[in-house]
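ugh finaly. both done.
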Amino acid sequence: MDLFSIEYTGQSNLLEAHELITKAIKIKSRLSFNMFLSVELEVIINSLYMQRKSIVAILKDEKLKKELHRCMHYSQNELPYICKKLDVDVHVVGPYLKALKRFKKKFPRWQNLLLAFSEKSLSQSSSEFAAYYKTNIMKGKKLLNLTGGLGTDDLLLSSYFNEIISIDKDENLNEMCIWNMEILGINNVSRLTYKTETYLFEKNISSFDLIYLDPDRRVGDKKAIILEDYSPNIFQLMPYFIQNKKDTWLKLSPLIDLDYLVQKFGSYLEQFHLVGIKGEVKEILIKLNFQNDTDIKKLFLIQSSSYAQNNDFFFEEYTWPPHRVKIQKSEPQKFIYKPNSLLIKSKYADSLAVKNNLSGLAITPSLYTSDEQKKIQNFIGYSCLAVFTKWKMGLKFLAENTIGELVFFGFSKNEKKQIQSKFLMKSNNKTIYYLAKTGVTRIMVVLEKL
């Protein structure tokens, strides 16, 4: 059988042709399809060629998988040569190996496994802890995940549901997820290739207990700012949710404003969950209730010190909106307290500051002060070493002390760049030079972490 007779063979001879087609892949660029080969054969060859390029195809090949382990120790300059020798695509292997360190950080439980993922899917996926936290709030018999993504939420939630239907329009991503589930021995998650809108239009969702969405927050190379730019568009799906009266959970950008969400979802919005890891907001979860309207929302702050699954996390419940409090302003005292991003996002910083007898720092709305040393949850404490109300004296001190971190408030981007280029700082994770500008007044406060 030669290459150009393959198109005339029947289905029974296709396996016999497989090896020859695979060889043809290597000389694909030299073939002239328009003269000798049918369109069907070109589809077959292209399909096999793409399979050779996919990370799943590499991971399925035990020999290549072992070589992939070895590739971790090669430099970026050596990698193209090694990939060529192994007959794998450096444009697949390179980004995978580069992102592997980040994968191990986000998912400590799987750090010794070579699971399949892409750079984009990894960047948008929930971390191990964030996925695990969902198992505390999302439970039932049957879950519909309308935006499967990398599937990390499905993997953790599979132990708490009898069945999960997870859909995504990306076939390559679905192939990765199916492979990962096979490796992890998960058999109650069905991964289907569908557009969200198509699935809702064609299928009956009345049998599901919960619906979950983690929309794509990138428009091309840019991050989506408003909800209407998410993919899929949440508001175009709302009629399906309202009609079926299903509790719906949305995972949203950590940058999104809570007042904006209340404005958009109104009385359907029942709960906010702000999930933080090591002081940073990693994701915002909201629960939409289409059965009972509510004006008073529940706000939950969740703080973990680790990316790994753990039960030793901070959890506190509040109501939304926060009660307005009047906070006294003061000049810097012996100790300065900075709320972490979780507390700032929740807009409860002032309330907790008043509760703990802190005064607001007069020069900036984002810091608090006291003459007493305190340990307050979600606040970072500092000793106040010096206050420079004369700007030139502060800059002179800064020129003589370049160990620490510069933190700005009230300065323009150009002003920040100008100061940063003048003082090349070396961080010691302890000292902070807090530069604040209000109108024409500029001061510098030197802080040391407690």
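ok and the 2nd:
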Amino acid sequence: MRLRNYQGLFESFCPPPSKVAKKTELLRQCQTAGWLYYLIDGVVKVYITNYEGNEHIVDLMRGGTLIGMDCVTPVSLSIRIF
């Protein structure tokens, strides 16, 4: 299923799209945000930070992606997303 097919549905319930500056932190590891982001265009880096402070990229999310699914399933926690 392509999420772009449902972009109009998201926009009918959500605020209008907005631009987010590079390196803006959207979600933080082990914290539930309480909302979803729908990425229309661009790339979002998803990474985890270990106890030594080292970052490990686990995904590069592209347009047509939902970010923050932990607000739907609160038992799973976010990983850090930029």
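summary for the 2nd one i guess: The first helix runs from residue 7 to 13.
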